[in-house]
Amino acid sequence: SLGWGFWAERSGMTGHLAQTDVRRMRRAGIAALTSDEGLALFDAAATPSTAPATADAVLLPIRLDLPVLRAQAASGVVPALLQHLLRIPTRRTVEASGAGTGTSALWQRLARLPEAERVEALKTLVCTHVAAVLGHADETAVDSDRAFKELGFDSLTAVELRNRLNTATGLRLSATLVFDYPSPTVLARHLLAELTAANATDGVGTDRPALPAAGTATAVDEPIAIVAMSCRFPGGVRTPEELWQLLEQGTDAMAAFPADRGWDIEELYEPGSQTPGKIHAREGGFLYDAGDFDPGFFGVSPREALAMDPQQRLLLETSWEALERAGIDPASVRGSQTGVFAGIMHHDYGLLQGPDGTPGSPSPGSIASGRISYTFGFEGPAVTVDTACSSSLVALHLAVQSLRQGECSLALAGGVTVMATPALFVEFSRQRGLSPDGRCKAFAGGADGTGFSEGAGMLL
């Protein structure tokens, strides 16, 4: 078989590549094949005299720029697939040069700078290498506050950036660097901390920045301030002010089942029936716009947005709104010790059929808090809890505990419920625990069962 390299002719396999992608591949030592070159290589591979000697051999028809590859070999950033073609410096040589200790000319330059300018210098360094990896002309094309994912990084380019920064800083950095420190600004702060620690006793510089201090516990009786909140509730409620108005006016927000979720209400509804699979009520509290979402705003592809549980989408939206209502630019807390605590008990969205007619993939609620942390670049705890009806309350309790123990300096806490299927109504109808009119009548003589509702809320 043939493992083709990059063809210059635009096709279904290369049409999505931008010029920055092409320039990046060229700088990596991989040049584009013309159609004539590709056809000639195909003929050569198919000719018995030049074909592989064994049937299971794989030929790689690829055009390589050897001078570029040799230059990369000197810095150790050659792809593993091509390393056997070149003379690569041995690990012993690299270690002898001091790589891994951070004792480099870079630190000598940083030590002479005022403390406030060191992060900026490292930010420029990171952005310069980001631009080189992504194929941009220079570092000015890179927004240092955007997440690496939004800038266009994948696992391969992440490793390439790590290798470049290993060489530039003299540190040994993790292959997961861009995922652990999700923007150039956050990564620059991390590099400064690593370089400072590595050179703490070398006598260079007298005004080094202090390493980030470990979290300190807060007094048990010190108040925890709620600085903002956001929400979505039945009755068209989209803000805390609208929720207050709904409560003040005593509005009944319970209404008919949603018509856009594929629930066959006429088939399901059978009041008083003991037939399995039937529902005894026709109303509940619903977020009729739960499916609305702007994926581009959060850097999510349309396909991923369809696969994403609407509960996760709502948590992203309400988290952003809570920060916004607090007067905090979400970009300003990227890399901060902000925690996320979310309560979720419904996990049935993944059971639905996908847009291509195949069964949906499981959508565990456990990733909801992590998705928020990753999207916003938070580095505090990310916890999802399911304690049924008390999930959001427990999430809030854990957030307060985390703040008091110094595990985070800021916390988003709340929860979400969107019922993707009518399974809960069916089960409580089977138990004869669902109120016929879909409404709870707590502590009332006429109480005749429970009712169910959707909603989302976040406190900051």
What does this molecule look like?
The strands form three sheets. The protein has a five-stranded mixed sheet, sandwiched between helices. A two-stranded antiparallel sheet has the order 1-2. A two-stranded antiparallel ribbon has the order 4-5. It has three domains: 19-89, no CATH class; 98-198, Orthogonal Bundle (Non-ribosomal Peptide Synthetase Peptidyl Carrier Protein, Chain A); 229-459, 3-Layer(aba) Sandwich (Peroxisomal Thiolase, Chain A, domain 1), CATH 3.40.47.10. 37% of the residues lie in helices and 8% in strands. Mean pLDDT is 84; it is low at 91-99 and 203-214. The protein has helices at 19-27, 35-46, 66-75, 91-96, 105-111, 115-134, 148-151, 155-169, 177-180, 184-198, 240-249, 265-268, 302-307, 310-325, 367-376, 391-404, 423-430; strands spanning 30-31, 63-64, 229-232, 255-256, 283-284, 338-343, 382-385, 410-417, 455-459. The chain has 460 residues and is α/β, with parallel strands linked by helices. The protein contains 17 helices and nine strands. Helix 6 packs across helix 8 (155-169).
In short:
The chain has 460 residues and is an alpha/beta fold.
Offer a few descriptive terms.
460 residues, alpha/beta, Non-ribosomal Peptide Synthetase Peptidyl Carrier Protein, Chain A, Peroxisomal Thiolase, Chain A, domain 1, 3 domains, five-stranded mixed β-sheet, two-stranded antiparallel ribbon, 9 strands, 37% helix
Topology at a glance:
Blueprint: H1 19-27, E1 30-31, H2 35-46, E2 63-64, H3 66-75, H4 91-96, H5 105-111, H6 115-134, H7 148-151, H8 155-169, H9 177-180, H10 184-198, E3 229-232, H11 240-249, E4 255-256, H12 265-268, E5 283-284, H13 302-307, H14 310-325, E6 338-343, H15 367-376, E7 382-385, H16 391-404, E8 410-417, H17 423-430, E9 455-459
Helix pairs in contact: 6-8, 6-10, 14-15
